[in-house]
Amino acid sequence: MKGIVFTEFLDLVEEKFGLEMVDRIISSSELESEGVYTSVGTYSFSEMLQLLQHLSENTGISIDNLLLVYAEHFFSVIEKSYPGLLATYKDPIEMISSIENHIHVEVRKIYPDAELPTFEVIEKTENSLIMDYTSSRAMHHFGLGLMNKTFEHFNATATIALEKIKEDGTQVRFIIHKN
């Protein structure tokens, strides 16, 4: 997993819960990196799981809800760092449906060894989208949060449902209806 995911996560934890919480979740975890991350480094996904688990235990907030909040934070990083990418799109359905064929292509130019989930468009209309998410990392709530922020970015709203295809969350179907 790319280091920017870790550095931004720890920035969010510090912003929302304080530096002491950052120290607490790092100290509670058994991290090969010892909690030292660079945005361009690559780290084990198990480290992110440990940090999320310990943050959840210390705050009483579910991991899924933490991933939603983190996705909102991460979207703001994308807005600041890659405004040209977002400006390419005029509609949230168009943008979300292009994750696999455009956005992930651009991400791989910056992070060639990034392990990204796949998004397969099952059905697309002007106001709806059905996509299947597949990843060995069950971070679909992170994807859901990014989708929510995409609609917000375009001053639009939507109903986004997710159905687990596999109970462990490694395959999920997103059903999106633009309001």
Automatic annotation (TrEMBL):
<feature type="domain" description="Heme NO-binding">
    <location>
        <begin position="2"/>
        <end position="160"/>
    </location>
</feature>
<protein>
    <submittedName>
        <fullName>Nitric oxide sensor HnoX</fullName>
    </submittedName>
</protein>
<dbReference type="InterPro" id="IPR038158">
    <property type="entry name" value="H-NOX_domain_sf"/>
</dbReference>
<dbReference type="InterPro" id="IPR024096">
    <property type="entry name" value="NO_sig/Golgi_transp_ligand-bd"/>
</dbReference>
<dbReference type="Pfam" id="PF07700">
    <property type="entry name" value="HNOB"/>
</dbReference>
<dbReference type="InterPro" id="IPR011644">
    <property type="entry name" value="Heme_NO-bd"/>
</dbReference>
